[in-house]
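Review form for a predicted model. The reviewer records the input and the model, then writes brief findings.
Reviewer: anonymous (R2)
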Amino acid sequence: MRYGPRTPTTRSTGLADLSWILTGQAPTATPPIYGLRTDDTALFYAGRHNGVFGDPESGKTWLAQVAGVEALAGGGTFAMIDVDHNGQDHTAARLLLLGAHPQHIADPEKFRYYEPEDADQLHAAVTDIVARAPSVVVLDSIGEILPMLGVKSVDNDEITHALRTVVMPPAKAGSCVISVDHLPKSVEARTTGYAIGGTAKKRAVDGAYLRAEAKVNPAPGGVGRISLRIEKDRTGELRKSSNGGYAGTFVLDSTQPHTTTWTIGREQLPTNDDGTVRPTNLMEKVSKYIEDNEGCTGRDIQSGVPGKERWITDAIRILVAEGHVARQPGPRRAQHHTLLIPYREAEDDRS
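Model under review:
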């Protein structure tokens, strides 16, 4: 498959064809096809706007680029709009590490890399992409694209308009669009399931919206492990194949000098001796919080550590039971916490 011009059509009124009702055969929802997992299911939908967000160095762009490399390997095409200052040399080198064929990267009919410097160039790039309808389009990142368009990151009306002009046209042309974004810094905002800025970003996603959380940050010579959580799935096909909100763990192996291999698999969650889920990631976060906030109460921990209340409560209980944390009663029935032995997930034999 190569790039090709789309068939011209007259301007649509938005009228939907509901004639299928008479046949009794409703349109079927197409499952995700890019970002293949070890069970042969995938993460990202074609013809839809998908998103990945997370902290810096949490593998967000790596994951999006993996989908592009898959498209190239399968005979498709790939385009990337880079407003996050990755640079063409760095991007090309990374794609080669991921196994992209040099001839594909060098061929603008297979891979197109755009590095717009202003709104006019950005709109021109989007127009070019829509005309070519590549298999996968990566936008890195929304947090940089919005100010380039003069859009306030907290103005939902402006965000909605901007995403309709930049993100949605390639998706409507049939491309699997994957936008990259960042997590907010405040603890309260991080628990909402939204990227930093206005909520319109999440509303604009009509495919899969994934939160990437690095258990081990990717690094040259190392093995990165990134947990992927489903924050939104418009058609529900990803949740169905995932049996819930855990989309899998993205493993990036960079231990070899000239190649980086990856897998996306659904790992068995760590369990305690009694078979209950062991929230190792939260246990480490709670341990670090108590270490930095000696004598904190349970309420302090709930407010200071992002996560669901019952899982944080379980994490505290396990840390106390296993001798990592001591509790001392305080006034008004409060329980104050002191760290005895730091807990680290990587050192847990059951993680």
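Findings: The chain has a mean pLDDT of 89.
Further findings: Residues 60-73 form the longest helix (14 residues).
Recommendation: see findings above.
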